[in-house]
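Entry 14. Ran structure prediction on the chain below.
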Amino acid sequence: MTASDTITATGLDAAIADLQNLYGDRIQTGRSIREQHAHTTTPIPNQPPDAVVFPQTTEEVAETVRICARNAIPVIPFGTGTSLEGQVNAPNGGISLDFSRMNRVLSINSEDLDCVVEPGITREDLNHALRDQGLFFPVDPGANASIGGMAATRASGTNAVRYGTMKDNILGLTAVLADGRIVKTGTRARKTSAGYDITRLLIGAEGTLGIITGITLRLHGIPEKISAATCSFPDVHSACRSVTTAIQMGLPIARIELLNALQVQACNAYSKLDLPPTPLLLLEFHGTEASVAEQAETFGEVASEFSGSAFAWTSSTEERNRLWKARHDAYFSVLPLRPGARPIATDVCVPVSRLADCVTEAEREADKLGFPAPIVGHVGDGNFHFSLLVMPDDPAEYERAKDFIGWLNDLAISMEGTCTGEHGIGQGKQPYLRRELGDTVDVMIAIKKALDPQNILNPGKIFEI
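Output, structure tokens:
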């Protein structure tokens, strides 16, 4: 029996009445705010919750879940709403938990290089709080996402090639289970052999197994020196081959991003750059002044073996920030390529040794679509993204886009890769999960049923049960 089977108007009314007693004016039921807490970033339909609540403590979250469990009402966690596969939608209705008021840094332990935060704090706000300690949190998905949402979707980003993804940078979690119990999954110790790794079970579970209310994070010292570099290539295959070679050499690159020719042209126009309008790698090196210079020079030599040209690097903070802001603004930069179009974002990830072939084949296939499809990629770990610029009132284009995404997912899986490197499954990529993992999906469903027998925690995400 699931929440979607048993939700009733009586149960919903009872739950909202109890929540109004608990939250007062921190529960909202207006249509506009409910729609703002459902999916709006891609053409996946907006499916709003029945109410939005704004908890301030873990105990309030636990009591909310207990109220919803009594009435078989779904609970959907909400960070900043930047997820791309429908993770915040409420297909069965229910209560959206907006964590924007749980946004504190609870402790910074500079000697141990860790901190404890609430889920609503954003990546940028956290790094602002850490700066005067000489520390930073490296995971950077581009959007100014919440740390809780980044944990729930196992986010990655531009720094992953050196610093890893969210699963590599979380020591432990506080979470509320489907029956309202509060659990802690780890300590501040750097390693443990104590039982099941529940921390990593919850990371990437998209709120379907527990609601994250606290995160203990690994931190890193701000590097003594940082430099950025750009290098142009005649085609994406050559650019990706240089990446593979650099990774295999063990060159400790902090960030390495691919922009295909169309994306470079878009960034040039939007961010007022003058980069050569050909495929480009944007890189960043961290270390001492000497090591950063050595890394840049070594990569320049590697790039030259694959027809890399216009290689330039800079330690200027202003110029480096300008380049990375252009990369982070990639979503907005592509909009003028086709005024009125709506981007459909999708990603895949393959072993680095298959990257050049996968990107080349994918770009060739995208050229047949009849609408722009620029590429960006965190190619140091084999992950790349398309933005498919589809007219929202053209069903035929939307079907072509869906068919292309399916083809791309199957291509990545055939190369021993994954249908999503960092966007997650949500609603959008459910058809491809079993193709990738087979009967392992049944194991996931068994875990879900054991921890959430009523299916009230973010139902309809990852798989249907």
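The mean pLDDT is 95. Will compare against last week's run tomorrow.
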